[in-house]
């Protein structure tokens, strides 16, 4: 069963997973802009036009030729109005000005705008104060030049990026399909919340943890019925899902117990890429391919689910969609000393906060057991402690993964 790597360093396992994901990139679909939010862009976008498209006023006021100004106040004749949405409504001669609103195209020949609050209007004249040449004018192309590359394949479509595409008149974008995800929890001991517990049983908390994490990442996961510790039933359900989903995420049944059937089922009916990573929690993590699906077998302890999803789960989902932009890496100062003696990379629950001095602080939760879900509920970040023994003094800077 073990003709695949096992006991990998975190970075080596991550590289393997990213490589598999890059070889199973999801297909591309073209969607109306309103459906592109949060998707990964699958094309480069070169601007088909300039932004702003034309010189226009940044303020409500009066547009004029700067060369017409004389000293601290100049009397200009009001030649007409030019409001946003129109062009060529008024063509002023020398010594004239035009009333403009914000966004109005600059009337022909004008180059400067003064805000209306600083002017005095006397009948058909406007008394204009001394104003810097070019004031309050937004020039064509100052934000985007035509042909300039503004978005790249692999970018995540944030609201601002979708909005930028809209401002360029682009109505649809080629994006990666979102992976379909099947979620399985496994274990004879698991009971649905709300049902009575018999001795030895516990409530299934991993299902909601995983569904919530996946939904927070913009996916629409499908929760399959909970699996008993029965190898045949595990096999049938997983092989079924392997034909129908892009990703299978399971929780439990991947370590060394007599009832841990997942590694065997994957090795027999699919292909295991690795099993067991030198991380804490999450050590028995399993990754492989089963039919058309990539299967991530997360260890059953709830905090192991959290740590392995936030690292490997996200990397898999990002990789399948061709996301190139790395997730933001955060760092914070430890509020207290932190020691680690074991050789694995550790993910410690912590409380992240931003001080009034602008410095991020993180307080490690002393509860390290991977069953201690309460400590995860009290936390909002995982502190990443690298491989090998580590001693951090209070104030040391550590990497954190907010969640
Ligand atoms: N002899 C060994 N024993 C264990 C090893 C090992 O290497 N050798 N690894 C330990 C580590 S580390 C972890 S983590 C766990 C992972 O075990 P499994 O992935 O096989 O998970 P289970 O045994 O099924 O469950 C572990 C633990 O989590 C509870 N659990 C499982 N599913 C849920 C759920 N949906 N909701 C709430 N709680 C769940 C389960 O009852 C167990 O207590 O193995 C160690 N053992
Ligand atoms: O690796 Mo286990 O996930 O420490 O508890």
Automatic annotation (TrEMBL):
It holds the Pfam family MoeA_N. SMART domains: MoCF_biosynth. Pathway: Cofactor biosynthesis; molybdopterin biosynthesis. It comes from the Bacteria. InterPro entries: MoaB/Mog-like_dom_sf, MoaB/Mog_dom, MoeA-like, MoeA_C_domain_IV, MoeA_C_domain_IV_sf, MoeA_linker/N, MoeA_linker/N_sf. CDD domains: MoeA (cd00887). Its cofactor is Mg(2+). Residues 182-319 form the MoaB/Mog domain. Its EC number is 2.10.1.1. Keywords: Magnesium, Metal-binding, Molybdenum, Molybdenum cofactor biosynthesis, Transferase. SUPFAM superfamilies: MoeA C-terminal domain-like, MoeA N-terminal region -like, Molybdenum cofactor biosynthesis proteins. Catalyzes the insertion of molybdate into adenylated molybdopterin with the concomitant release of AMP. This is Molybdopterin molybdenumtransferase.
